[in-house]
Design brief:
Layout (H helix, E strand, L loop, with lengths): L14 E3 L7 E3 L9 E6 L5 H10 L4 E4 L7 H4 L56 H5 L9 H14 L3 E2 L14 E2 L5 H12 L44 H7 L3 E3 L3 E7 L5 E8 L2 E12 L2 H11 L38
Parallel strand pairs: 3-4, 3-10, 4-7, 5-6
Antiparallel strand pairs: 1-2, 8-9, 9-10
Helix pairs in contact: 1-6
Bound molecules: flavin-adenine dinucleotide.
């Protein structure tokens, strides 16, 4: 067992943990703080991870910062729910308003790989009509882009994440086959499927970001059942085992246990770098561009706490809406009581 990933940064000295081999390391490029890198990306989760990888692959110098730890899945994740708390962002956070968000254990992750290290892997697409929900369905707002554009990105992400899904998805326009076959449904799901059929509903297996057959260093899912504690076999296709290794290979640097506290902007209002806390000290990293990908809660918090004389209400907040009307993840689950034994 390696030292605790929470006690000291692991991505240092020109190397980062090799998430696929116990105790292993992979080489990592490191940038000097006084060198203005092309991009600093704050957050290495679902938003930041692919961006860091793609920017590095396009030849940009990029550093991904994460307040969370750099876990080694093969060694750090136990088959035990209490161990899950190490992945949550449970620091004190203040919320207010008529319908305040519930903070704590279920709404965001804190790790290299972000919430995807403990997310439930359900990988659904937004349906075409939902992109124009105001004009077509009479609620919400229309998106500024067409569903076809977004669906191209879904296809790419589904390939990169080896999503396991049904051969033919029964709703919406035809889509390319999922790269991996769907997982077998379990007893509880079979019961639900029977119920759905009895009521005339169509059903299908849920597309999931855990491999149904071996992929590179990821063995096929063994249905261990502690997915949200962190997958200890690497079957789960989190950012930690997909885009982050890709990013490192392409020359990106990852700074773990590095909490960004403020984005610095110059007199023209352009970002010049970030102040971050690591190893007990505040540091400053120069950057030409700063991307904030810290989830629905920490992104607005950072923008608001980066206020200046010129931007008194925080950065990117000319609308006054940053930090208001927040939504965390929505959920597709339904709950019910069954007459039959579900197991
Ligand atoms: C328990 C759980 C289950 C979920 N299940 C599913 C599911 O099945 N399917 C699905 O589609 N979605 C699911 N989600 C939601 C999904 O994980 C998130 O919507 C997604 O990860 C959000 O991506 P993000 O990049 O915005 O943030 P995250 O993935 O959370 O990444 C943000 C990262 O930024 C870091 N960070 C934040 N602020 C700073 C800062 N100031 N300095 C440095 N680092 C910072 C955090 O440590 C974190 O690692 C689930 C979420 C949770 C919590």
């Amino acid at each position: 067992m390696s030292d605790s990933p929470l006690s000291a940064p692991r991505a240092t000295d020109g190397r980062a943990p090799d998430v696929f081999h116990a105790g292993g390391w992979v080489p990592m490029k490191q940038f000097a703080e006084h060198d203005a890198v092309d991009f600093v990306v704050i957050g290495t989760g679902a938003g930041g991870g692919p961006l860091i990888a793609r920017l590095a692959e396009m030849g940009y110098s990029v550093i991904g910062f994460d307040a969370g730890a750099y876990f080694r899945p093969l060694e750090d994740f136990a088959s035990d729910e209490t161990s899950q708390s190490q992945l949550f962002w449970t620091d004190e956070r203040l919320v207010d308003g008529a319908n305040p968000l519930k903070m704590g254990s279920n709404n965001s992750g804190k790790a290299v790989g972000g919430s995807t290290v403990h997310f439930a892997m359900v990988s659904l697409r937004f349906r075409p009509e939902w992109f124009k929900s105001r004009s077509k369905l009479g609620y919400g707002a229309d998106w500024p882009l067409d569903w076809r554009e977004m669906w191209q990105y879904y296809s790419r992400a589904e390939r990169d994440l080896a999503i396991a899904g049904p051969v033919s998805y029964p709703w919406g326009p035809r889509r390319p086959r999922y790269p991996y076959r769907a997982h077998e449904i379990n007893g509880a799901a079979a019961l639900l499927a029977r119920g759905a059929e009895a009521m005339g509903y169509r059903w299908t297996e849920t597309p999931l970001a855990t491999v149904s057959a071996p992929r590179g260093n990821s063995p096929s899912c063994v249905y261990r059942g502690f997915c949200r504690v962190g997958c200890s076999t690497n079957a789960k296709q989190s950012q930690l085992v997909t885009y982050i290794p890709r990013a490192l290979k392409a020359g990106a640097e990852i700074r773990d246990l590095a909490m960004v506290g403020r984005i610095e902007v110059d007199v023209e209002g352009r970002a010049t770098g970030v102040h971050y806390h690591r190893n007990g000290h505040w540091h400053f990293q120069r950057a030409k561009n700063v991307i904030v990908a810290g989830y629905a809660i920490e992104t607005p918090r950072l923008l608001l706490s980066s206020a200046t004389d010129r931007f008194r209400d925080g950065l990117a907040n000319s609308s006054g809406l940053v930090g208001r009307y927040l939504m965390t993840q929505s959920n597709q689950a339904a709950y019910g009581v069954m007459d039959d034994m579900v197991r």
